[in-house]
Amino acid sequence: MPRSPSRPASTAMSHGVMPPRIALPFADRREAAVQLATALSHLGAATPLVLAIPRGAVPMGRIIADALGGDLDVVLVRKLGAPFNAEFAVGAIDESGWTYVSEHAALAGADRTYIEQESARQLALIRYRRRLYTPDRGPLPAQGRVVIVVDDGLATGSTMIAALHAARARQPGRLVCAVPVAAPDSLDRVRPLADEVVCLAAPAQFQAVGQYYERFPAVEDSEVVATLAARATRGT
After folding, report:
1. What topology is assigned to 79-132 in CATH?
2. Can the peptide bond before residue 55 be classed as cis, meaning omega within 30 degrees of 0?
3. pLDDT, position 235
4. How many angstroms separate the first and last alpha carbons of the chain?
5. Tens digit of pLDDT for each residue in 38-48?
6. Region 4-76+140-233: CATH code
7. Which of 62, 113, 123, 151 has the fewest C-beta atoms under 10 angstroms from its C-beta?
């Protein structure tokens, strides 16, 4: 697939550096993470806590945490899928049970009863993943720290909204949202929830995150567990 340049719509302007034009699609999540780490390099001195949204963003989070000399953990959230299309998010839920419901949920057929049932299903999966991913510990401390919430892209932005809500509740000193690519309207939704938003590209004709990667394989639970375990062995 040929690559085309895309001007970043939201960048790490706090340090006054505009990144170059980004060639899309990215080869894979690794390439996207390396480029994102460069855009986040101004935060390296803070030894940030990188919170990756499972599962796809966890390998990316490791690369970013390594590049910045930070710590790696997960922030457990799940999207609430629409009744007739589980891939289309009508909201999201975080580990505490807090739920975000999008303005288009009712139009997608998600009434109050459906949202309650879907929330219960996804919260059960979140709790299963907490036991699976970090069986011997809770979330790493975030209070007072620079916290970077990472995902591999924003479509509706629902899961990032829930992730930023969860991270903010842990009282970070500075909260950063970082993604390689996003729908422009999703950036508008998440921007008020973070102190800084770093996004490499926001194409106007955004359809799905996967279209901006040449290779976009599923990340399995086993890879998440191995990545977090390897980080714990080296002291996060």
Report:
1. Ybab; Chain: A; (3.30.1310)
2. yes
3. 53
4. 37
5. 999 999 999 99
6. 3.40.50.2020
7. 113
